[in-house]
Design a protein that fits this description.
By secondary structure, the chain is an alpha/beta fold. The protein contains 11 helices and 11 strands. β5, α7 and β6 form a beta-alpha-beta unit. The structure holds nicotinamide-adenine-dinucleotide and (2S)-2-hydroxybutanedioic acid.
Length: 366
């Protein structure tokens, strides 16, 4: 087989596997991912990147999506136009279009057509980490990227739900929410996407218990970095048979999973395919909610007075409804191990939230 043909076959296999896996876990067929009808407009910013490409494909396959915009820079590994042309041939109703900017362009000056009318904007635009880096090391560069995109959303689609995938989620989300607040916009439209932590926890529990994967749903609370990632195995019936002595290692496996992928990719990126799967799961939860089927998914959001949370931002179960975030759920009952871990998680998370709040103090949206 020629290298080109091998690449094409591998690409098709990856795409097929992703679509199949997504359909399986969501209980839908490969051609139809749910009963709800919709015609939502979705934009993926950074849509020609490692996460962006498979995420665009999965969103285009979602029957709730009527229009998909692929936005990226002209320095992306593939032109956004190429990704859109490719995905536009899927036998789905979704219309796909591309928007490309130069690094010097400001999205707020150029993305009117792309963002106007968007219901959901997913943002995997930004640098991934390399071995030896923490997610926090990405704040300097990625906060600026996120800010320019959020600024354009504030202008052209202030009612859209924004799913921020870009790292460090723990700091970027508070920063962007504060900028929305300063602008008088609903900062609860902005969510940090932590679904990959849940996906991983579910898979690891399935591997050690053999319980069917469809029956496992581990809430993962706190944030999305190191010790802030807190899986609540005590709340999961499938985990009842796991001895207490095995929980710390399982917990650590979930915390370290992103770093494991970064190391396995040897400096050539971080999780992309599993993140696209998780991002599509998050996106589907939001769109189902907008379509009137309330759907619950963990996400990292601003905490209101009703939530009685010690921290202003926290990941927990969130129900998405017709206007986006509808209800932020209490974390529920924790066992002694989880109570100790919660203290550890909050200590790290507090500093990372503050880094985001500091960024927002010195910046404003146009
Ligand atoms: P990537 O480098 O493969 O793709 C990023 C894309 O963003 C590129 O196509 C690039 O051109 C584009 N981009 C860069 N600056 C931009 C800008 N100003 N405007 C629009 N597009 C821009 O990276 P990736 O592997 O897809 O990761 C993207 C981000 O997602 C990283 O920050 C990574 O850490 C993060 N991530 C988060 C999670 C999570 O669970 N939340 C999981 C995996 C990765
Ligand atoms: C992940 O959890 O895979 C992402 O946050 C990417 C990373 O840097 O680990």
């Amino acid at each position: 087989m020629t290298p080109a043909l091998l690449g094409a076959v591998a690409g098709a296999a990856v795409g097929g596997a992703l679509a199949y896996a997504y359909a399986q876990k969501s209980g839908a067929s490969a051609k139809s991912c749910g009963g709800a009808k919709g015609n939502f407009k979705v934009c993926v910013c950074g849509g020609a990147g490692g996460i962006g490409q498979p995420l665009c494909m999965l969103m285009a396959m979602n029957p709730l999506v009527g229009e998909l915009c692929v936005f990226d820079l002209n320095i992306a590994m593939v032109p956004a136009e190429g990704v859109a042309a490719d995905i536009g041939h899927l036998e789905r109703k979704c219309k796909v279009s591309a928007y490309t900017l130069d690094k010097e362009d400001k999205p707020v000056d150029k993305l009117k057509e792309c963002l106007t009318g968007c219901d959901l904007v997913l943002v995997p635009a930004g640098l991934p980490r390399k071995p030896g880096m923490t997610r926090a090391d990405l704040l300097g560069i990625n906060a600026g990227i996120a800010k320019n995109i959020v600024e354009a959303c504030a202008k052209f689609c202030p009612n859209a739900v924004l799913g921020l995938i870009v790292n460090p989620v723990n700091s970027v989300v508070p920063a962007m929410c504060e900028l929305y607040k300063k602008k008088g916009l609903d900062h609860r439209k902005i969510c940090g996407v932590t679904s990959l932590d849940i996906v991983r926890a579910n898979k690891f529990v399935h591997e050690i218990t053999g319980v069917p994967i469809e029956e496992i749903d581990v809430p993962v609370i706190g944030g999305h970095a190191g010790t802030t990632i807190l899986p609540l195995f005590s709340q999961v019936p499938a985990c009842a048979g796991i001895p207490d002595s095995k929980i710390p290692a399982l917990d650590k496996h979930v915390q370290d999973a992103g770093t494991d992928v970064v190391n396995a990719k040897g400096g050539k990126g971080s999780a992309t395919l599993s993140m696209a799967y998780a991002g599509a799961k998050f996106g589907n939860a939001v769109l189902q909610g907008l379509a009137g089927n309330d759907t619950t998914e963990c996400a990292y959001v601003s905490m209101g007075a009703d939530e009685k949370c010690e921290l202003p931002y926290f990941a927990t179960k969130v129900t998405f409804g017709r206007n986006g975030v509808k209800k932020v759920h209490d974390i529920g009952k924790l066992n002694e191990y989880e109570k100790g871990r919660l203290q550890e998680a909050m200590k790290q998370l507090k500093d990372e939230i503050n880094a985001g709040l500091d960024y927002a103090k010195t910046t404003s949206l146009a």
